[in-house]
Amino acid sequence: MFYKDYSHWIREQFPFRVQKISVDAAFSCPNRDGRLSLGGCTFCDNKTFNPSYCDRGKSITQQLEEGKAFFAKKYPEMKYLAYFQAYSNTYAPLEELKRKYEEALAVDNVVGLVIGTRPDCVSDEALDYLQQLNQRTFLIVEYGIESANDNTLRRINRGHTFDCSRQAIIKAHQRGIITCGHIILGLPGEDEEEMLHQASTISQLPLDILKLHQLQIIKGTPLAKEYEAHPFHVFSAEEYVNLVIRYVSQLRNDLVLERFVSQSPPNMVIAPKWGLKNHEFTDLLNKRIRELGYDHR
């Protein structure tokens, strides 16, 4: 196939169906608590991806049980991965990390963890613990890379360099941990040539999984103010389909691609307004791949 699909890959990891359940474990972020910044990344609003059962006012156990109830209606035999998604989920003392991860793993039918974090928030001590955890449960560590261009990272107030991402990914890989990277395509200041060059750079990292998202301008964010004051280009769905095909063609064949788009609540999005669900976009992408004769590399 033109790309290695996550849904097929994850089915190969388990003898049963699994579903991620998002958890807000009340972690913070150095870009919000003042260690680096108070404003956060210019594009970020965590409310755009937290489902209704994901509420830091509830315990991790309660969030997972409510998430299980939500999904069990359709798939009663489902097993689950606790997805520590909101903010930076290794940004705490090690004992706190252990307590929260172990609470999630103690919930019935939770068979693994997916831990989303920043590359500058994972200590060697935490990675050593995650290496031990990886020996007894399924584990993915997901790093927000966002861009391979340091100028872009400064512009979006990311607070770390690309080399920081590179080193964090290498350290996780060396410990045998399945490692995922997150990239945003369409960040201000990056043209298509820059993004395609980035694809080759990303492909050289020892990543197992990659998530691509289109840039979305979310109401109330610093990026929204920048966009309203000085509008910059955002992709149409057709433009983005073509970019993704060219981007993926630069990636190595064994890299698992989990997502191509992000779908925020429509009332929060200033641009682009595609009116497409994630699966509808993927259907368009696969249709275009077939039309171009790219089913096989």
UniProtKB/TrEMBL annotation:
InterPro entries (UniProt xref): ELP3, Elp3/MiaA/NifB-like_rSAM, Radical_SAM_C, rSAM, rSAM_horseshoe, rSAM_sf, YhcC-like
Annotated Radical SAM core domain residues: 11-266
UniProt keyword list: 4Fe-4S, Iron, Iron-sulfur, Metal-binding, S-adenosyl-L-methionine
UniProt xrefs under PROSITE patterns: RADICAL_SAM
Cofactor: [4Fe-4S] cluster
SUPFAM superfamilies assigned: Radical SAM enzymes
Coiled coil: none
Highest rank taxon of the organism: Bacteria
Name under which the protein is recorded: TIGR01212 family radical SAM protein
Organism from which the protein derives: Hallella faecis
